[in-house]
Amino acid sequence: MIADLPLWLSILVSAGVLAGALLTMAGCLGLVRLRDFYLRIHAPTMGTSMGGGLILLASAIYFTLTQQRLVVHEIAIFLFVTVTTPVTLMLLARATLFRDRAAGFTATGPDAAPKERPEVAD
Amino acid sequence: MKRILPHPVLAGFLLILWLVLQQSAGLGHILLGGAIAIVASLAAHAVIPEPVTLRRPLKFVQLLVVAGIDIIRSNLAVLSVLLHPRPRPTAGFIEMKLELTNTFGLAILACILTATPGSAWLEYDREKSSVLIHVFDLVDANEWARTIKARYETLLLEVFQ
Question: Which one of B79, B111, B114 makes the best mutation probe of the A interface by having the most chain A beta carbons within 10 Å?
């Protein structure tokens, strides 16, 4: 099946998969390296938006060409991921906001920088 | 008609999703998918009593294109911050008032802001109709609020309200 694909298309598909995977990895490393919770929620989004999107796009191109018909269930995957991410994110974020407010850190005003909030060791 | 199909937009969307997942537009799949879509939209009626209306579908497509471009730009911006040996983003919170009150419009705005790596939708207060957003690389809070209003909220208001 791979032999049927012209060279430039194989390069395009592999570039898509690789770029997506690298972006996802950069996001995961960001999750480890950033310093507090509110910063960390941003990094993995790279994997669920553009990283995942590039991998799915490459997959759709590859299977559409090798199976000689339109393969688009990748769109459904992207849709499900995009629609469900905010649910978990809000759950985690609101739990953290609740804990911060209970502990007396009103870090949520427009002027308050999150670095004023002390590191929570857990 | 309204009793069999309380949510025509949802049912149509479910039918299309079913056909995409089945990879076929054969008559059997359309009939089965249609039946599933009607049953599911009837079930959804118990949870979502208000009707879903897409006022201007073309504006909705425009919104998806604008959001897609912004998501790509934000990915590259966050990546450039993370590539630093010691990433020091100037993060901050924004609390902004929204004119948009439609549940579906708010849900879509939450999806867009969350899918953008540079911003995260944290909390919506229905009484004050204000939303708390956390921004990864915040330079000017008012500028951000204006951008969200101009790029997404006006389009969503036209589509849903």
Answer: B114
